[in-house]
Amino acid sequence: MKELFAILIGAMFVENFVLSKFLGICPFLGVSKKTSTALGMSGAVTFVLVLSQAVTWLTNEYLLEPRGLEYLQTIAFILVIAALVQFVETVLKKMMPALYKALGVYLPLITTNCAVLGSALIFVERDYTFIQSVVFGLAAGLGFTMALILFSGIRERMEACDIPEAFKGMPITLIAASLVSVTFMGFAGLIIK
Amino acid sequence: MAEKKNSKLSIFLNGIIKENPTFRLLLGNCPSLAITTLAKNGVGMGAAATFVLVGSNIVISLIRKITPDKVRIPVFITVIAGFTTIVQLLLAAFLPELNKQLGIYIPLIVVNCIIFARAEMFAQKNPPVDSFIDGLGMGTGFTIAITIIGSVREILGSGTWMGIPVTVNLFEPATFFILPPGGFMIMGLLIALFNKLFSEKKSKTAKESESGCNGGCPGCSKAMHGGEAS
Q1: What interface predicted TM-score (ipTM) does this complex get?
Q2: A167, A169, A181: residue with CB nearest B180
Q3: What would the pLDDT profile of A81-139 be if each residue is shown by its tens digit?
Q4: Nearest CA in chain A to B85
Q5: Which residues of A touch B81 (CB under 8 A)?
Q6: Long-range pairs for A103-107 at CB < 8 Å and ≥24 separation?
Q7: Residue A71 touches partner B, C-beta closer than 8 Å
C-alpha cells in the first residue's frame, strides 16, 4: 500500500509527466488555452492512460514475454493504444457530443500522446506489477491534469497581456511553462519511503 | 526540367526554414525538450528521427494508392512503429551508449507528431521521390533545430559543447539550463528569435507558396494552420 502511495505521489509531483519528463507536451501546449477544454482533454487522457496501462501490461505479460517477443513492444503497444483511443472516441461521440465537439482534433491525437506510450514503456523498464502500473497510469494522468489546469489558468490571464510581437503565441507560452516547471522542481526533494 | 529540379530543392529547403518542424510548425516538442541537454544527443535523436521519417515517408507514399482511407491511420502507425523498432534495435546493437542516453525517447519517436504529420500531409498525397526528399528535408530541419537547442543548453548549462569545455574562463555554467525549466525557456527564446529573424520573410514566402507550391503540396496551408493552432 505504502509503495503504491509512493508511486502515486512520485508520478504526480516529483516526476510530473509534463513538467519534468516532457511527455505529452503537444496537448499541454495545444489545448491549454481555456480551462474548460483543458479539463476535458486531461479527463480523456487520464481515462485512456489508466485503461491503456492495464491493457498494455496484460499484452506484455501474456502475449509478448512468454514468446520472447519483447522487441515488438513498441508496435504492439501503439496498436493497442490506437484501438483504445478509437473506442473512447466512439463512446464520447455517442454519450457526450458537446465534449466530443470541444475536443475536436485533439482526441485522435491522444494516440500520438507521448504520455500514454511513455508510461507503458516506463512500466516495462521498472518491472511494475499490474496494480503498480495501473496506479502509475492514474498518477501520471492526474499529474497531467494538474499541470494542464494550472497552466490553462495562467494562459487565460496572459490573453490580456501586452506581449512583444516575436514572443506572441508559442514562445511566451513556453516561457510561462518554464516558470511553472520551476515551481515543480520544489518537489524534487520529496522522497517517500 | 530546371523548374522541376527547383521544386525538388524547394521541397527539401521547405523543411529546414519555411516549415521547420520545431521552430515553425511546433511539432515534435517532446524530444526537442527532453533530450536536448547535450548537443550530441540532439544529433543522435535527429538522425534517428530522420531515418524513421524518410523510411516511413517512402513506404507510405508507395502504398498510398492501395491504402483505404478509413484505415489509413492504423496503417501509418504500423509502418512508423516498424521503422522505429528498426532504429531501436540498430542503436542498441551499435551505439549502446547513445541508446542509454536517449532511453525511452527512442521508442517514443513512434508518437512524434512530425512523422505522423508528414505522412498525413505529404507522403499520402505525393510520389515516393518527393516524399523521400520531404522526409530528408524535415528530418534535417528537425536535427538542426534540436542540435541548436542542445548546443545552447549544453554551453550555458554544462559549459561544454559536444563534450569539449568552451566556457572555462568566461562564466560559471548554470545548471538551470540542463534542468527541465531551462529546456522550456531556451526553446521559447529560440522560437521567438526564429520568429524575429524570419518574420519579414514570412509575407514573402507566403506569397511564394501561393504561386509556387499550389498543386504540389495541398498540405502546406494545412500544416501552417495546424502549426498556428497548436
Answers
A1: 0.80
A2: A181
A3: 888 888 878 887 888 887 777 665 566 767 767 888 888 888 888 888 888 899 999 99
A4: A74
A5: 74-75, 78-79
A6: A103/A31, A103/A37, A103/A40, A103/A41, A103/A44, A105/B229, A106/A27, A106/A30, A106/A31, A106/A41, A107/A44
A7: yes
